[in-house]
Amino acid sequence: MKKWIPAMLGATMIFSATSASVFAATPTAVTQVSAATNAKVSSNGYNISLDQNSLCSNTSLQKVLGLSKTELQKQFQAGKTLADLAKAKGVSTTKVTNALLQPQLTKLASDQKSGKLTQAKVTSIKTDLTKQLNNSLTKKVTTVTTVTTTTTSTTSKTAAATAKTTDTTSSNNLTSLNKSAAASALNLSQTELNQQIKAGKSIVDIAKDQGVNKTTVINTVVAKEKSWVTSQLNTSWKNTTGTLTTEQQQFKDSGYLAKAAQLFNTSADELQTQLKNGQTLTAIAKEKGVDSSKLTETLHTYAKEQVTEQCNQAS
Fold first, then answer.
1. Helix 256-264 crosses helix 292-311 at what angle (to 10 degrees)?
2. Measuring CA to CA, which residue among 194, 185, 174 is closest to residue 212?
3. d(Cα 282, Cα 275) in Å, to the nearest integer?
4. Residue of higher predicted confidence among 312 and 19
5. Terminal-to-terminal C-alpha distance of the chain
6. Contact, 292 vs 28, CB < 8 A?
7. CA–CA gap between residue 45 and residue 308 (Å, rounded)
8. Lesser CB count within 10 Å: N end or C end of the chain?
């Protein structure tokens, strides 16, 4: 299954070449995201980005820590966590958390005032975001690095060096499985759905154009995503190659691994190691004293939040 979400890895570069005399080489920059798991916290569609660029550009965080954007960048690149910086500056982690939370608090207050959210829901989302932020303070910050690859041009007719991009995340971050579900609910073929997504429309926009209830479409896609998530709970990640399969990488990059790790009070890296050693999430939950139904509920809730958010986003 390919990747939905955010935050999510884009294209895999596949290079093929036959022997040829080389006359010129042109470097091509490809941006890749490091394997850190501290990129974002989310609750009910309210997101707070925790990648290096977002944190360094956060003026509230700069003010609380007394550090400029450049100084923050240097500290993160040196491996410092937000908790490390707070301690060094004599600032409470609560102030750091509040600085990160503030933009969403403003949005939550506005949504409550407009009647979109109840007070109870606002409190629930705030509590969830605060908990996730507190857990993120001791994690290293995700960095974005630029990797330079080269493609080679040649005048030889008998040989050529080519580079092509294979899309591992469909337009609008829609997986092939969920795209199929959305297309069916929208009474469209996948080709027709692709064309509209590429034109910049969101799933919700398309539903409106098709005269289909957007909630029906979202619920259909959510059900498909939940079914896939459930299928991963009793599957170990052990394999002969030692590398993650497409579905395992999808599960990790979509945030489900980190969400489960949070529930188990462990790190995503430690959880991944256990899975690669042959354990399943259900078995690990039992070891940790976490009811399997709680694990399922947590991941299903997260799935609904992510799918709902993505269906409202244009490509």
1. 140
2. 185
3. 10
4. 312
5. 19
6. no
7. 7
8. C
Q: Measuring CA to CA, how many Å separate 98 from each of 20, 64, 105, 129, 269?
A: 59, 10, 9, 10, 27
What's the number of domains the chain is made of? Answer: 2
Q: Which two tokens stand for residue 181?
A: 């579900």
User: What residue ranges in 154-290 does DSSP mark as E strands?
Assistant: 161-167
6 found inside a domain: no
138-196: pLDDT as tens digits: 888 865 443 434 444 443 444 333 333 333 333 346 677 788 888 888 888 888 888 88
- Looking at 165, 193, 213, the residue that finishes a domain is 165
For residues 49 and 121, state if they share a domain: yes
Query: CA-CA distance, 100 to 97, in Å (whole number)?
Result: 5
Pick the last residue of a domain from 138, 165, 192: 165
Contacts of 108 (CB under 8 A, 6+ apart): 46, 117, 122, 125, 126
Q: What token pair was written down for 125?
A: 């989302």
Residue type, 315: S
Question: Residue 190 has which token pair?
Answer: 């996948």
Q: Do 145 and 175 lie in a common domain?
A: no
* Strand (E) or helix (H) holding 30: strand 24-33
pLDDT digits (tens, 9 = 90+) for 236-287: 898 767 788 888 888 988 899 999 999 999 998 999 999 999 999 999 999 9
Which runs of consecutive H residues, i.e. helices, occur in 22-90?
52-56, 59-65, 69-77, 82-89
Strand partners, 28: 149
Please name the residue that has the structure tokens 């400029």: 68
Q: Are residues 119 and 197 in the same domain?
A: no
For residue 222, give the 3-state DSSP assignment.
Answer: helix
Neighbours of 302 (CB within 10 A): 22
